Amino acid sequence: MFMSRITLSPAAVLRDLAAAADAYAEHRLIWSFFPREDRQRSFLFRRMETRGRPSFLVVSPEEPVPPSGAWIVESKPYAPKLRQGQRLVFSLRANPVVRRKTDEGRQRRDDVVMDAKKRFKEEHPGEMVPIQRLMQDAGAAWLEARAQRLGFVIDPRLVRCEGYRQHQLTRGHGKPVRFSSLDIEGLLTVTDPERFVKTLVTGIGPSKAFGCGMLLVRRP
Predict the structure, then answer these.
(1) Sequence-distant (≥ 6) Cβ neighbours of residue 205 within 8 angstroms
(2) Is 87-218 in CATH node 2.60.40.1230?
(3) Is the CATH number of domain 2-77 3.30.70.1200?
(4) What is the mean pLDDT of each run of 10 residues along the chain (220 residues)?
(5) Domain residues of the chain, as ranges?
(6) Nearest to 55 by CA among 92, 26, 14
(7) What pTM was computed for the model?
């Protein structure tokens, strides 16, 4: 595995900036660094900002290859060595969802923040929705519910949820793609190093093709 940083080169022009205009454009851009055909996505990525310009962190089984001189790729082997009980600072941009049954008995996937907002309105009609608190509680609970099987545990009191965004992407004449993202940061404790390393390279939750799911960690 490799961890790579992709940044714009001094030779980049405005059309290169447009290649990262939204989550779908970013999706197509990162795919272009892996030109082999007939294969499934095997990378995770996270958009960052470097001096006000887009940059990307990528975890992948092979080194990204720049599609043009507009991009610079710096790669290094990625083989985390962790131990049980180790505490790490983490950062995750996730698409947290919950499955609900519709009135027709079908499964529906809802954004956890909007789901919490809907339930609050049903239980407290006429009251102002405390969206910040709902975002914090719903995001922390979503991650806590998945953490153990992914090789770690969190204390919700040591987690911060912010940066909630709703995205709507248009793919040609196809049906729009809608998803939400939430930035979750805090402290975690490794419980199963082998599972946790797998989580670092396979990600957490849906919408990984659009820059969600990549768990970044560092020592406190």
Answers:
(1) 94, 95, 96, 97, 146, 212, 213
(2) no
(3) yes
(4) 92 69 83 77 88 88 90 95 96 92 74 91 91 95 96 95 88 77 97 97 94 95
(5) 2-77, 87-218
(6) 26
(7) 0.88
